[in-house]
Write a structure and sequence with these properties.
CATH architecture of the largest domain: 3-Layer(aba) Sandwich
CATH topology of the largest domain: Rossmann fold
CATH superfamily of the largest domain: Vaccinia Virus protein VP39
Largest sheet: 7 strands, mixed
Number of strands: 7
Number of domains: 2
Strand content: 5-15%
Distance between the termini: 56 Å
Length: 379
């Protein structure tokens, strides 16, 4: 039996949305209406003669705008535009032509009817794509991601790139975190330190210690305990050393350089999510724990509705742009959003802790589920 024909290759799909009938029709109508002095619909409906063209402008301008956006964001050109990209392009167009140009070149004011026309055109483009383009073979949909069982994934598929991301943003990591979270991440770490303090550990290992923020909170909460911070990113540890943390080790969480049963408590804040194997990392943390020792995991999660929709918009659309301004590394925060979406949340994470040989797994939701604290104990 002959094999099934393969799908279109990347070069064949590339810019396939440029030939979409909507874009071709909008471009043709826009050009014809402009060359005719905007007389189309202008006789009986003078109000529409300008705004009709403005409505066509976004569908006509989307292809080059999307090409620029995807080049800047290092994204593939092989898929059709999604709602988020269309809105980003429309917002940028409106900002440039209805605020920057009138303010600095024409000394005028923004025409909000023009802005409304731009967004009407964006809605037209999105609606057409949802009805027609998404049905075509070879065009993946933004909403076509498969439902993955919580236990199916086992770590970051981009783990080799994580070290490079953190190396590039190490010097601005703390500032970006505090500004992007509104300082709430400081309170989360203080809560984690408070929990560890109640365990009265003699020896603590902070895995993926990064810039040392959690380690410093643990040092203050447990001044008599031996505290060791481990991370596989040397530039991040250089930042941690400036915080007077005396025991820092360059180490991979999947192969910790410590004997079995060495610590009373192991902590990891915003790091487990980035590891190549969550199961392997949890097994290694369990190995270095003493019998009766405790594990604490602090990481991001996904809140429940009605907060979920707003949080997703912030996570994927607002946070990367703000982070790019602060760190110059938007790609690292695009990765952050994707990794949060795939990380086990709530009971799913507790199941993983139990499967790794730990008992009494509990979690505490923070800020409605935006983050969570997980604790478990080694038998």
């Amino acid at each position: 039996m002959d094999p099934a024909p393969a799908g279109p290759t990347a070069p064949e799909r590339r810019f396939a949305y440029l030939a979409d009938p909507l874009f071709l029709a909008a471009s043709s109508l826009f050009l014809a209406n402009s060359l005719a002095g905007r007389r189309l619909l202008g006789g009986q409906f003078p109000f529409l003669k300008n705004h009709f063209n403005d409505c066509l402008l976004i569908p006509a301008a989307l292809p080059p705008l999307l090409w620029v956006f995807r080049k800047l964001k290092l994204r593939s050109h092989d898929s059709p535009p999604g709602l988020g990209e269309i809105l980003e392009c429309t917002l940028l167009w409106s900002f440039c032509f209805e605020w920057v140009f009138p303010r600095y070149f024409h000394k005028g004011t923004a025409d909000w009817l023009d802005v409304a026309s731009y967004f009407a055109g964006a809605a037209l483009a999105w609606g057409f794509w949802r009805m027609e383009v998404a049905r075509r073979p070879g065009f993946p949909s933004e909403a076509s991601t498969q439902s993955i069982p919580p236990m199916a994934l086992d770590g970051s598929i981009q783990a080799n790139r994580v070290r490079a991301y953190f190396s590039r943003i190490a010097s601005r990591y703390d500032l970006a975190n505090h500004l992007l979270s509104g300082g709430i991440d400081i309170l989360w770490r203080l809560r984690a330190a408070q929990i560890v303090q109640a365990w009265r550990p003699a020896a603590i290992l902070d895995v993926a210690t990064g810039s040392g923020d959690l380690a410093r909170s643990l040092q203050r909460a447990c001044p008599d305990a031996l505290l060791i911070g481990a991370d596989f990113c040397e530039p991040m540890l250089r930042v941690a050393r400036e915080k007077r943390l005396p025991h820092l080790v360059v180490a991979d969480a999947l192969n910790l350089p410590f004997p079995d049963a060495s610590f009373d408590a192991v902590t990891v804040a915003f790091g487990l999510r980035n590891m190549a194997s969550w199961t392997g990392a949890l097994a290694e943390m369990r190995r270095v724990l003493r019998p009766g020792g405790h594990l604490l995991v602090l990481d991001f999660g996904m809140p429940q509705p009605p907060l979920l929709g707003f949080y997703r918009f912030y996570l994927h659309r607002i946070l990367p742009w703000l982070a790019a301004l602060l760190t110059g590394e938007r790609s690292a925060y695009d990765y952050l959003a994707d990794s949060i979406e795939s990380f086990p949340n709530g009971e799913a994470m507790c199941e993983r802790l139990g499967a790794s040989g730990l008992r009494d797994a509990h979690y505490e939701a923070l800020l409605g589920g935006v983050a969570a604290l997980y604790t478990a104990q080694k038998p």
